[in-house]
Each structure stands twice: as C-alpha cells, then as structure tokens.
Amino acid sequence: MKTNWQTKKLEEVLEYEQPTQYIVSSTSYKEDYETPVLTAGKSFILGKTKEKKGIFPAKDLPVIIFDDFTTATKFVDFPFKVKSSAMKILHPVKNISDAKFLFYIMQNISFDHTGIHKRYWISEYSKIEIPLPALAEQKRIVKKLDEVFEKVATAKENAETNLQNSKELFRSYLQSVFAKPGKDWEEKKLKEIGVTQTGLTPKTANKKYYGNFVPFITPADIDISGNGSVRYDSKGLSEEGLEVGRKIKKNSVLMVCIGATIGKVGFATREVSCNQQINTLTPFDGYDAKLFYYILSTKSFFNKVIKGSSQATLPIINKGKWENLSVSFPKSLSEQKTIVKKLYALSLETKKLEKIYEQKLTNLEELKKSVLQQAFTGKL
Asked: Which of 41, 274, 315, 359 lies at a 20 to 30 A Cα distance from 135?
C-alpha cells in the first residue's frame, strides 16, 4: 500500500440500507416486464417484475448489494427490486469513496463464512479494514480495472464459446454416424443385443453387504469426465452384498433412468454393481460393447428415452420400456470396431481441445485476481 493511502473499515466508507421497502410482492416474473429483481448470489437477475412501487431510485445509484449470509456482492447501476431481506444495500460515503472501487476491493477479500448461518455485515464484515486512496485515485483505478476486465470478459466469452464448440463437434459427429444407417446395418431392441438389468441396492442397514469386493455405482458416479468414465471408488459391496445385488459384467453400458440426470451414460471397464436408478446393457459376444455406449450417448437415443419415460414431475423409464427401445448399427463386427476406433480418436482430440479452453478460463480467473491484488497494493 502506498504511503499516502489510508486504512479504513468498510463501515466507515459504506453506509448500509435495509432492503425491506424494495422487496417484490409477487414472484410472477416475465422477460417483457420492466424492473429487474435482484439477488446478490450467482444468478443476480432472478427475473423482471411489473410492480411500479418500491423500486430502488436511480438518483441513489450506483450501489453494492451484499448477501448478508454468504457475503456475495454485486455492483448495481440500474433501478431494481429485490427478492428478499437477506441482503444489505451498500451506499458509498459521498466525497470519500467510489462504489465500484469498493466493489472491486471486496472481490479481493477472503472471508470464511462456512459452517455458521448468520448475518455478517454488521457484526463482522463491515469491520474489515481496507486500503483507501483519495477519491480521484479510486476513480483512476476503477477506470483501469474496467478496461482490463472488459478485455478479460471478451477473452473469457471467446474461450467459453470455443469450449462449447469443441464439445458440440463430437456430439454432432456422433449423431451423424448413426443418423443414416447403411445398407448392411440392422435394427434391434436392446434386449436382443445383450443382457439388460436394473440395479438394486442391498439393505443399507446390513453392514455386511458393504465393503470393497466390487464397486457399487450410483448416478453421481457415471460420466464423471464427460466421456462415459465411471468412478469406482465411491462405494462398494462385499462379496455377500453382491450376491444380493446385481452383478454387472465388465464392458457393460450403464444409463441413468430416473430424475434430473436421466439419459446420462457410462461404460464400465470392470465388473460392478449399481443401484436401482440405473439400467444396464451387457452386449452378447459378437458385438463391440463400446459401440453401444456411443449409440446410447446420441441425442436421438436420449429423445427415445425421454419419450418413453413417464411424464411425472420425476421422469423415469422402467427396464421393460428401456430394453424395448431399438437402435441401428452395422451387422459386421469389423465395421463396428472401425466406427468405435474413429469415435474414440475424435473423442481424444476434442478432450484435448476442451482442456486447453478450460485451462484458459482458469488462467483468466487467476489474471483477474492478480490484477485486483496489484490494484489494491498501489501497483496498478
């Protein structure tokens, strides 16, 4: 910190206002309504309201909204309403502090709020000391940070687009491979291709059923890396537990068949067991098992699963319906293997691209932190 900077507590440079008068009466939001309804959390804008009263006035902007329980913050420079009273509205003290400067400096504060659910602004957060230059210097720093972060945001947007495109590249090619069956292809139901099963959970009260004899797979363990990989070290069954549960052979396809992740697909490279939220296909000899992992990963098969599922709040497709879904594939085992080889190679290449863009996103976040650190030690 430069010698001509002061040290101030946040409560000395920010005045808080309770949000009570700005809380919406109704949560019936529509995009074509006028006034945004805000939260200080990740979602920020929850929707828009048509309510005309209790709107935060433009003359008092800009401000910082502060989640009193999580300490999350957002900078706001437009009229708004709020969802709840779980926040404070923070006003910069006139002629002393700049709202955006303080918002930026709060992004650089490390504050541990884990484990205790309580309001933090008055009792703790407002007591945090910060370095504070003169108002003109605050504005200069804000201008510089805005310029840097605008470039970072553009780079981040490009990286996110490229990341999405690399994922879509494989999905599109995968779909195209099976969209137009060749003349030497055939169509069969899953139950005609291999052994189908639904998982089963041995009684959890019987501790003898659980151990490390065989991995016990749940939906959370499937497709953990976006390439069908399965986590084997979360839970396990004992030898006795496997006798009660389902024995699923190596090279089986696993699909989640209930809930929000219905249609998620994994490929077991070792013998496993699984719970009742998962249906499995173990292809007969003469088929390339990995081919059916790819087929069941297509958008078209996912659509069949959704169409065949119950239309209740919690979508579910039972084994009877699932095993009767049909797929098209080459009759020739050699052609099956050729397709698998091509898809695997493309999958590896797209994963490399994804890692590059994911690392770039991580680097951009680290750059933001570094720039903030420089700014508030007087080095920007």
From this structure: 41
The encoded tokens of residue 36 equal 């945004």
Q: Answer with the one of 329, 350, 368 that is the final residue of a domain.
A: 329
Instruction: Give the separation between CA 67 and CA 125, rounded to whole angstroms.
Output: 11
1 domain residue, yes or no: no
Whole domain around residue 231: which residue ranges? 185-329
Strand, helix or coil for residue 266: strand
Cα–Cα distance, 305 to 261 (Å, whole number): 12
C-alpha neighbours within 13 Å on the C-beta side of residue 377? 8
- Condensed to tens digits (0 to 9), the pLDDT of residues 248-269 reads 999 999 999 999 999 999 999 9
**Alpha-carbon gap, residue 222 to 263, rounded angstroms:** 11
Stretch 23-38: mean pLDDT, rounded? 95
Q: Which residue has the tokens 């999350």?
A: 72
* Among 294, 305, 327, CA closest to 185: 327
Give the amino acid at 122.
I
Number of domains in the chain: 3
